[in-house]
Design goal:
The chain is an all-alpha fold and 436 residues long. It contains 16 helices and no strands. Helix 2 crosses helix 10. The longest helix has 37 residues. The relative contact order is 0.12.
Length: 436
């Protein structure tokens, strides 16, 4: 991407300053979770499967609550851009109180449902017992986890993505060490792994609270009006996220019904897609912070310029990632020790994945830009419409007996629909609301 002006170079530096640490924080989590998996893998069956069952429930909760990071980032960035640092801290604190309240509510609602949820996923016997143990202990860490999400949003809104990176690496490293001690050293089994995660999450939450209330002097007192406003904005982001999860869940269910080779190939492909998404999501996080800041400052022209620049970064990153997928394609099946049948399916999917990366680059960036602009209501409706665009394509695959590659092409229809809806919105001016 050529740097054609000093302003362009400055924008590039700002995007990189925010995106690179954000990428590091995003990648840190799956790497340390992989470490946890290796540790739990030393336990006799069905420990690893039990953690996988419980993690399915927890991952849904995390996905639906990610609005705490996104919404808080946009709100704080807008106030910082408007020069209202104290109000920015006020809105950040509203996000923290909302996260704490939602976390306590999740414990109250999900705790009595742990057994039905575990059995709904298909676990029974000793597998179900261990999964329930892990899930119940992990629920105790949910309030801390949501405080971390909101705290991350506060610092990102202040144009600081380096501190969240340091906190993420520190907490995940502590989680790995505690798992070693509790699981292998003290022999607590899956309960030890859950307690290690709860303690690491709690310490990370304490660090964020110390930074926000100590270093930045944010007011501790809750503002019920502000909390309700944050919750109202969060509902729209929950709808958006639920639509994303629904598409992925339908795709996984259809791949499962196609056969063992298909679900294995799909699982590997989704893991690679997720890793690539982290790189693109880092630019989206920069988009949230930059857009909120420039609109808060009342600078529509700068918002447009920054958006164009980030779209360029998204396209360029997508092209680069697509090329990397094509180069790595012959070697990927060997890395995952895939059998011949799975390898054939996977190699076909990698072509589709590579082609979709430039589209994904633009989609992720525009999603972040519109979140930063506070355009959550449109994103919720766009999520509904793009899901409705995907479902007929997926249904056609099922009715016509299409294979796994056809199913991933249906995902391509979904990504294209997202490109159209987000691109149309970004091209217009309804989202360019300036001021605090």
């Amino acid at each position: 991407m050529p740097l054609t002006s000093r302003a362009g170079r400055d924008q590039d530096r700002q995007i990189l300053r925010l995106a690179v640490p954000a990428f590091g924080a995003l990648v840190a989590e799956p790497l340390f979770l992989l470490t946890d998996t290796v540790i739990i893998g030393h336990l006799p069956a069905p420990a690893l499967g039990a953690v996988g069952v419980a993690a399915t429930v927890l991952s849904v909760l995390v996905a639906l609550c990610v609005f705490l990071a996104y919404g808080t980032t946009a709100a704080v960035a807008r106030q910082i851009g408007a020069g209202n640092t104290r109000q920015a801290m006020r809105q950040g604190v509203d996000g923290l109180w909302l996260g704490l309240g939602v976390g306590v509510a999740i414990i109250a609602v999900v705790w009595p449902l742990t057994s039905p949820l575990v059995h709904l996923i298909g676990a029974d016997g000793e597998l179900a017992r261990q999964a329930e143990t892990y899930l119940r202990i992990s629920l105790l860490g949910v309030p801390a986890m949501l405080l971390v999400l909101a705290g991350t949003g506060v610092l990102r809104g202040m144009q600081d993505t380096t501190t969240p990176l340091l906190v993420s690496v520190g907490s995940f490293a502590l989680n790995a060490l505690l798992n070693l001690l509790f699981v292998l050293g003290l022999g607590w089994g899956v309960a030890g792994s859950a307690w290690g995660t709860v303690l690491a999450q709690s310490l990370a939450a304490v660090v964020y609270l110390a930074l926000i209330f100590g270093r930045y002097g944010a007011p501790i007192r809750p503002d019920l009006v502000g909390i309700r406003a944050a919750g109202s904005a969060g509902i729209a982001l929950v709808i958006r996220t639920a639509c994303l999860q629904a598409v992925l869940a339908v795709t996984a269910a259809m791949a499962t019904r196609m056969g063992e080779e298909q679900i294995e190939a799909h699982t590997i492909a989704i893991r690679i897609w997720t890793l690539l998404a982290f790189a693109l999501d880092a630019i989206a996080i920069a988009g949230q912070a930059v857009t909120g800041h420039t609109l808060g400052a009342g600078d529509v022209a700068e918002t447009r310029r920054a958006t164009r620049r980030m779209v360029q970064w998204g396209v360029g990153s997508g092209v680069l990632l697509g090329l990397l997928v094509m180069v790595a394609r012959p070697f990927v099946p060997g890395v995952f020790d895939a059998g011949p049948a799975v390898t054939g399916q996977l190699l076909d999917l990698l072509w589709v994945m590579a082609i979709l990366q430039p589209i994904a680059g633009v989609v992720f960036v525009l999603d972040g830009v519109l979140i930063g602009a506070g355009d959550q209501r449109y994103l919720a409706w766009a999520g509904v419409w793009t899901t409705l665009a995907y479902l007929p394509a997926a249904l056609a695959v099922a009715l016509l007996g299409g294979g796994l590659t056809a199913l991933w092409l249906a995902l391509g229809v979904w990504m294209t629909a997202r490109l159209v809806t987000l691109g149309q919105r970004a091209y217009g001016s309804a989202w360019l609301v300036i001021g605090a």
